[in-house]
Amino acid sequence: xxxxxxxxxxxxxxxxxxxxxxxxxxxxxxxxxxxxxxxxxxxxxxxxxxxxxxxxxxxxxxxxxxxxxxxxxxxxxxxxxxxxxxxxxxxxxxxxxxxxxxxxxxxxxxxxxxxxxxxxxxxxxxxxxxxxxxx
Length: 135
Description:
The chain has 5 helices and 3 strands; from the N terminus they run H-H-E-H-H-E-E-H. By secondary structure, the protein is an alpha+beta fold. It has a domain at about 30-105: Arc Repressor Mutant, subunit A (Orthogonal Bundle), CATH 1.10.10.10. Strands 1-3-2 form a 3-stranded antiparallel β-sheet. A hairpin with a 2-residue loop joins strand 2 (about 90-95) and strand 3. Helix 2 packs across helix 4 (about 75-85). It is globular and about 45 Å long.
C-alpha cells in the first residue's frame, strides 16, 4: 500500500491546500483574529513584518490600538513586535495624547499633536480632529 494517498496529501506528495486558506494577506483581516501561522506559512511573513505591512497599507500611519484591534493579538504581543520594528528603524512610535501613533519614518509628523494621527478605528489612514475621534 505504498501508493495509498493519505488524508491531507495529494497523489504527487504535496500537501493539499486548506479549503479555508486565505489567498491574500488582506483576507486575514476578515477573521476575528489574524493567525500568526497563516501570516508565516501562507504568506512567508513574520508577524512583525505583517504589522509593518498593515501600517504601509494605511498610508504609513496607524494607531497602535488599531493594530491590536485589527489583528486580534494582545496589546503586549503587538507592542513586543513593534519594539523590534522600532529598534531596526522600520517604524516610529509617537505618543499623541494617551495613544501611540505608529508610522513609517517618512510618514511621521514633524511636530506631533492630536490632529496628526488617523482617526480611531481607521485602518485606511483617514484623518480626523481630536473631537471627531472622541465621538
